[in-house]
Amino acid sequence: MSVPLIMSVLLGVAMLVLAVMATRGRRSLGISILSAGLVSLLASVMFLLLGAPDVAMTEAAIGSGLTTFLFFFVLGRVRRGEHD
């Protein structure tokens, strides 16, 4: 087996585990948000291994970075009870 194939399988398993953690986040909403961000980050690594660096950079910036920040920002506002 080649190294990229083994890496792809390991990343796929890690993505599945983190996705399960994100959907079963009854204990902590913050852990669910972080798990979803990590799934997106691992997806960007998978795109990089598949030879699509432009898609990988976009996924890392938007999917992992901006979306995770936005979820935590909104969660903080909802918990404080702020309105527009």
Textual characterization of the structure:
The protein has 84 residues and is mainly alpha-helical. It has one domain. Helices cover 83% and strands 0% of the residues. The radius of gyration is 15 Å and the shape is elongated. The N and C termini lie far apart (56 Å).
Q: What are the key terms here?
A:
84 residues, mainly alpha, 0% strand
What's this entry about, in short?
The chain is mostly helical. The chain has one domain.
* E-strand count: 0
Question: Pairing-aware structural class of the strands and helices?
Answer: mainly alpha
Uncertain stretches of 5 or more adjacent residues = none
Strand content: under 5%
Total helical elements: 3
Roughly how many Å is the radius of gyration? 15 Å
Domains (count): 1
List the secondary-structure elements in sequence, H or E.
Answer: HHH
N→C terminal distance: 56 Å
Quaternary structure: single chain
Helical content stands at over 70%
Q: Choose one word for the global shape.
A: elongated
**Biggest sheet architecture:** none
What is the average of the pLDDT values? 85
